[in-house]
Known about the structure:
single chain; alpha/beta; 13 helices; binds zinc ion
Amino acid sequence: MAYRWPAGTTFKRIDLDVQDRLCPVCGRAMHVCDHRYHHLWTLQGPTQVVNRLVRCPDTSCQSRGRTFSPEAELSISMPRWCMGWDVLCWLGHRRFARHWSVPQLRLELKDTHQIALSDDAIEHYIGLYQTMLAARQQDPARLAEAYRDIESLVLTIDGLQPEKGHETLYVVRELMSKRVWFAEPLLSSATPEVRRLIVVARQWAERLDKPVRGWMSDKQDAFVKAIASEFPGVPHRYCYNHFLRDVAQPVLELDSRAKVKMRRKVRGLRAIERRVLEAHRPAAAPEPTPPDERSKTDAPPLAGASEAAAPCASSDLGLPTTDSALAATGVATTGEALVEDEAGEVVLGYCAAVRGILNDSQGGPLHPPGLRMREALQDVRDSLDRSLQGKKGGLQSRC
Ligand SMILES: [Zn+2]
């Protein structure tokens, strides 16, 4: 893909020569016969690489007609690329190790390095980076090295669906070195399709010359059949995770029903919050100072109350922020309004905590969401009991 350089771009020039100017056939000094120009982005900016091409001057030499180019050219970039290796590595590392998006990469290249590339160009080069990475990951020599001290192999296969409705990505992993061997998207999970992957796994194991001690999967029909025929006699076990999930299914269903019941019982948060916020409002109303003349440090306690109440009242969906609570207590000095405010903030704080608990759906089979909810609600109740026992006063009765 040709890159269109803006008019007037100034390039940093790099001249390259062949390492050995002597003809490899007859040993004569070779002459420069042509120049090849390569314009590209490096992290130093727009760069022009000038390759001096040479050939043997002896017309009777066996090497006649052959042109030699500088070896160093490939250490800067690949032919026809619009970027050097440095930019390619910069892109690939940020994309795959840090999960930056393409627009984010484009903007950062522009802002920090003044390199102007389109999203399409960035995607193209990320594709090249990925291809090289996969080739390196699957290189037989590197793989043999990684498996030198491993006696036997344990293989797994699983299908992942990154997005519903898309093709499933089948991943074959080896557990002894915790390495993804290969992955392939398949349109169907039919046995012949899956078998092809199992065959490739067998070929890999054969090339490594290591015995396969076992297979692990969710025991889909296609996996069971293909593995049984390609790896006869090799044990095929259920994956812990899938096994646990399947066994726990009835428990999770009961748990989910319990959650619905608890939600039904713990309600009316909105009404409590509204009452607290309304209690703040009349206190703020008689405040005479116009808002622009009011400074935070001089403001009477009432101003603090209105500032604290306003953000909560205006955001009907949002939770009351601790910022506003801090602002209120920071500004207010003494008096009844302060105590009222503090009690109100405590009530709002409890409401926020309980809403967080009701909306939390985390938790796996060993610690299901409903059980977590019940524990968390018990913590809130204990906390309320402690507050009420600690201070028996008129204000606390509001809680
Ligand atoms: Zn020669």
